[in-house]
Structure prediction request, 79 residues.
Amino acid sequence: MNFPVYMKRCLVRFTIVLLIYASFERGSNENHNRMIRRFLPKGTKQTTAEAVLKIETWMNRYPRKMFKYQTPFQMFKGG
Prediction:
């Protein structure tokens, strides 16, 4: 591999790493974290599989603006 191609790959990886930490560019991720925090406050050490399943089900049945107020479950089923 020649040097310019190697540097280009390194710069792309470096840019991606920098952008990952910009919360304003990860809107969906931050929104999902906020939804999870309704059930599990920050700093929660332990949880059960049942609690995680409850949160997962609730999130999949929560209507989203990006899906024209359909739920992810409806979109998955072909809504």
Remarks:
- The radius of gyration is 19 Å.
